[in-house]
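Lab notebook page, bench 4
Experiment: in silico fold of construct C2
Operator: M.H.
Input chain length: 145 residues
Purpose: comparison with the prior construct
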Amino acid sequence: MFNADLMFSSKTDMWATPQDVFDKLNEEFNFNTDVCASSTNAKCSHYYTEQDNGLLQDWKGTCFMNPPYGRTIGEWVSKAYKESTKGATIVCLLPSRTDTRWWHDNIIDNDAEVRFIKGRLKFGGHNNSAPFPSAIVIFRGVHHD
């Protein structure tokens, strides 16, 4: 059974995007797809839910991604990079885990644009800040032949 309280707690790997953060990014990038969403937290009119499995979809245009922050995060970041090589631009809200393999293999090794966020975000409208720093990572769409 779905528990909305879990969606916004540290008991889950889902961290709801703060609306003000999304709004600023959307103003700059004009997103057309939210690749990791639910019907209750989607930031774009076109989005992929867990049932759609965004990892299996083709991403086109300019996409927003705030993936689950658990064990599959590396798969999501790798997918974002791969989709950028097909022409999509993916803007990711990620935990700033610069010591991890997924960060180095996908972000550092591929020269992604990184914007570190000063302070800690308050996810899902909570009063308390996240227990980790965050960053915006941008994979700009380029075609590789």
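Observations: Residues 1-11 have pLDDT under 50 and may be disordered. The first helix runs from residue 4 to 7.
Next step: discuss at group meeting.
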